[in-house]
Each structure stands twice: as structure tokens, then as C-alpha cells.
């Protein structure tokens, strides 16, 4: 029993650290691409892709360390949420979906920022892997219907495209069918996250089964 509780505590600390890392990544990204290079020092020679990657990396490390540190303080809140999702699993799914979708939407806001052209070339090598880590973390902590965690970030991005740029979609030769094409692109981009979430859910179920034996 003590071993199981230790595993649960470790899993929670890990999840808290990943959540903090995601927040730190977003903060570092926004701080350089939008605030520092977009408002405060737009002509600085330090503004560029290396600066953005460095700030995002440092933000990720700092956020992860803070998340790991504050895990014991926020654990009672998470336990209360776990009890709620046991009573109503769909409520838990909805909350996790909303949080992951918000992460995707906020990343799209950064991509739409004035200095975000530096980030677009790193979309598949930086942002999609980050979404996979987020989806895997959610899938590991909530194995049931884990695929939702893989879909949610890309749904958030697609939703922002419809809200902010919906009037520009369909102007070309494809007409209204362009909306279907855009949705299909985001659906394909969600596949790595879905796979990561399902693999993490499988590992979580195996570890839980091993802990009961």
C-alpha cells in the first residue's frame, strides 16, 4: 500500500511539473516574441529565433521546477477534482479537454503575434512535440478516453482560426470547402498527440494493474 501511495505521489509531482513546464514555455515564448521583441525592444539585435528558443527553454525549466515544488500545496485541490471526476467522469473529461484546448489556443495566439513568424518554422519540431507531452501527461493521469487529450490542443488552434480568420477561409478557389480542408489539416496534426496519449494511458493501466497484484 505504501508503495502504491508513493507511486501516486510521484505521478502527481510529475504531472504538476509538466503543467508548470507548459505554463513556463508559454510565458517564455510570449515574453520574448511579443513583449520584449514586439513592444519593448523591437529593433534589438538579440531578437530572433535563438532568443525565442532560449527564453522558451528557460521558461520550461523554471516552470517545471516550480510545478514540482508546489505539488504538495495543490494536491488537495487535485484530489477534490479527482473525486468529482470519479462521480462524473464526463465532467473530468470536459475540464481536461478545456484546459488542453486552451493551451492550443494560446499557442495560436503567439503564432499570430507580430514576431511569431520566427516560430512557424519550428511548429512541427517544437510546438507539436510539446502538445504530445501535454497529451501524454493527461492520458497517463486519466487513461479512460485518453484520445481526447490528443485532440483538444489542435481543436483549440482550429477554433481560433475560425474565430480570428474565418472570414479569410474560403476566399480562394476551394470556396466553403476550404473549411473542411482546414479542419482536416488540424485533424491530421492531432494524430501524434492522440498516439502519445493512448501510449501513456496504456502504460498507466499496466502500472496500476501491477500495483494491485
Q: How would you characterize the largest beta sheet? A: none
Number of helices: 8
Structural class: mainly alpha
Alpha-carbon Rg, integer: 19 Å
Element order: H for helix, E for strand? HHHHHHHH
Q: Give the end-to-end Cα distance, rounded to a whole number of Å.
A: 11 Å
Number of domains: 1
Helix content: over 70%
Average pLDDT, to the nearest integer?
A: 76
Number of strands: 0
β-strand amount: under 5%
Unreliable spans are 1-8
Shape: globular
Could you characterize the architecture of this molecule?
This protein has about 210 residues and is mainly α. It has one domain. Helix content is about 85%, strand content about 0%. Helix 6 packs antiparallel against helix 8 (about 190-210). The chain is globular. The termini are close together. Mean pLDDT is about 75; it is low at about 1-10.
Structural features:
mainly alpha; disordered N terminus; 213 residues
In short:
The protein has 213 residues and is an all-alpha fold. It is built from 8 helices and no strands.
Amino acid at each position: 500500500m505504501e508503495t502504491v501511495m508513493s507511486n501516486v505521489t510521484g505521478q502527481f509531482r510529475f504531472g504538476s511539473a509538466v503543467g508548470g513546464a507548459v505554463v513556463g514555455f508559454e510565458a517564455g515564448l510570449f515574453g520574448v516574441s511579443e513583449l520584449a521583441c514586439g513592444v519593448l525592444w523591437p529593433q534589438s539585435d538579440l531578437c530572433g529565433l535563438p532568443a525565442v528558443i532560449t527564453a522558451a527553454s528557460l521558461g520550461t525549466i523554471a516552470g517545471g521546477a516550480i510545478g514540482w515544488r508546489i505539488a504538495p500545496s495543490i494536491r488537495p485541490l487535485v484530489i477534490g477534482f479527482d473525486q468529482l471526476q470519479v462521480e462524473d467522469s464526463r465532467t473530468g473529461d470536459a475540464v481536461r479537454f478545456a484546459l488542453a484546448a486552451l493551451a492550443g489556443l494560446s499557442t495560436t495566439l503567439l503564432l499570430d503575434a507580430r514576431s511569431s513568424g520566427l516560430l512557424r518554422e519550428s511548429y512541427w519540431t517544437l510546438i507539436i512535440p510539446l502538445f504530445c507531452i501535454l497529451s501524454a501527461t493527461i492520458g497517463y493521469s486519466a487513461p479512460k478516453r485518453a484520445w481526447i487529450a490528443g485532440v483538444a490542443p489542435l481543436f483549440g488552434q482550429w477554433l481560433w482560426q475560425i474565430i480570428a480568420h474565418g472570414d479569410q477561409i474560403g476566399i480562394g478557389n476551394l470556396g466553403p470547402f476550404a473549411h473542411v480542408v482546414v479542419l482536416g489539416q488540424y485533424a491530421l496534426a492531432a494524430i501524434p498527440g492522440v498516439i502519445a496519449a493512448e501510449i501513456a494511458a496504456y502504460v498507466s493501466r499496466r502500472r496500476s494493474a501491477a500495483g494491485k497484484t
